[in-house]
Amino acid sequence: xxxxxxxxxxxxxxxxxxxxxxxxxxxxxxxxxxxxxxxxxxxxxxxxxxxxxxxxxxxxxxxxxxxxxxxxxxxxxxxxxxxxxxxxxxxxxxxxxxxxxxxxxxxxxxxxxxxxxxxxxxxxxxxxxxxxxxxxxxxxxxxxxxxxxxxxxxxxxxxxxxxxxxxxxxxxxxxxxxxxxxxxxxxxxxxxxxxxxxxxxxxxxxxxxxxxxxxxxxxxxxxxxxxxxxxxxxxxxxxxxxxxxxxxxxxxxxxxxxxxxxxxxxxxxxxxxxxxxxxxxxxxxxxxxxxxxxxxxxxxxxxxxxxxxxxxxxxxxxxxxxxxxxxxxxxxxxxxxxxxxxxxxxxxxxxxxxxxxxxxxxxxxxxxxxxxxxxxxxxxxxxxxxxxxxxxxxxxxxxxxxxxxxxxxxxxxxxxxxxxxxxxxxxxxxxxxxxxxxxxxxxxxxxxxxxxxxxxxxxxxxxxxxxxxxxxxxxxxxxxxxxxxxxxxxxxxxx
Amino acid sequence: xxxxxxxxxxxxxxxxxxxxxxxxxxxxxxxxxxxxxxxxxxxxxxxxxxxxxxxxxxxxxxxxxxxxxxxxxxxxxxxxxxxxxxxxxxxxxxx
Lengths: 495, 95
Fold this sequence. Notes:
The structure holds two protein chains of two kinds.
Chain A: E1 12-23, E2 60-61, H1 62-74, E3 82-83, E4 86-89, E5 99-102, E6 109-110, E7 113-115, E8 135-145, E9 149-152, E10 156-160, E11 167-173, H2 180-196, E12 209-219, E13 229-234, H3 237-256, E14 264-269, E15 274-280, E16 290-291, E17 298-299, H4 301-308, H5 315-326, H6 330-337, H7 340-351, H8 358-375, H9 387-398, H10 404-417, H11 421-428, H12 436-449, H13 451-458, H14 465-475, H15 482-494
Parallel strand pairs in A: 13-14
Antiparallel strand pairs in A: 1-11, 1-12, 3-17, 4-5, 4-16, 6-8, 7-8, 8-11, 9-10, 12-13, 14-15
Helix pairs in contact in A: 1-4, 2-3, 5-6, 6-8, 7-9, 9-10, 12-14, 12-15, 14-15
Chain B: H1 8-14, H2 21-42, E1 62-63, H3 73-77, E2 83-84, E3 87-91
Antiparallel strand pairs in B: 2-3
């Protein structure tokens, strides 16, 4: 007997680590008093220190250190009792001192982890989360200075030093991420937490959050990690996912062809959807770190104690509270808590206490408000409908004063015109008729004109009663309070 | 001759220095002597000495997060050998 043996393709294990740089939102730079601002005219925010002029000395920005320590507390890191500053030496025109002040062996934060929130995964991946509740381990977080911005022209390069020396926090994960989706969730969750802590505005499109990805691939069964390949130039959340997917399949293809992967750095090209080689290990940088003699060590005990008093409620804590105190569903609470500004809006609406349930308000915020905000690309901070106005509208519809469809119309009008729901309801004539006397007159008018229907109801056909209600609603142009009308009809026809 | 082998050419290239063979030999022996001195220190038992990052016993020298006026654009660019677009102009560099 003959057996045909089909060679089994080996499965591959992907291991990913992320290095995230986050710009801290301090008023001034890390080592000098120049403003740390975005969008100013080029080279208007410089001084001898951040231009690297000879003799200028750096002085630590206290707030930058506090914000980094706070980030560490939020992410469960430990802070060594003494931290120090080191010089990372390299030659590049965006760094005029020829070294970057950074932290080498005693950074501000060690260990810790980033919890991956379910709703932080890409939408299409939320139903199939491989490791729910995963916390990605961190190696460290250190503080350093950002570099200048280079602009490459046809024949030369120009440099703007406004960004040089602004505080930059580097958050380094362990190789603990298993997929492009987890990397996306990691960045998104981290971003939420940084915003909650008020340490960074963390907008990737603005370069406030930047990320390098380390990927290695190895055949199943192999213990040691494959060659570490670093990806640079990834500028958006969705690009992170695309880059990892593309690079993973490139590496697997290489291995399947029997090629050997070597430690290297590659550039992601988002337009072409591929990575290209920048440099290999042979010409890797040798940074020759050494302690910066211009800066003194920092003892962290007092700073830690001070910062601990300001640790905010974190997204997952807020989500749990919304479920517990407001009766929100897990999903709704997750959506609200995923955006600090949205959560504040919601809480303001609840606090307006217009006598509506917090759960109902959550429905409106998520289904109606978020929908129209997304359609119009407006951030919640610029929402034309004030939280207390939304609360008032929801209260009006819940009490039966206007109908559900009228409420949607009023809401859209509020969004367009910023007017209060009361004004719009009045202007549109949506105010319900609750005047018993006036309604009675209408009911009697209909009864008088339809003796046959009256006989039908009196003959036992209770359903025919709805016909009267309908006629009165029509007569009132939809303004009559339907509940009052049906009670009146019952009383007048049967009574 | 020092007990420490130094790759003087690598050290020079990291510092962007071009050394003649004579200079290379000179610096190699000078740097070797500095490293030899580390051997002197290594003879002492320093296990109980706290590592120091700085010669001064001073720490937590910080400033408040307040901004103050910067150079004007002209001041910032005053020493630039070449400028354009209100920026420092340099030969094209692409990593």
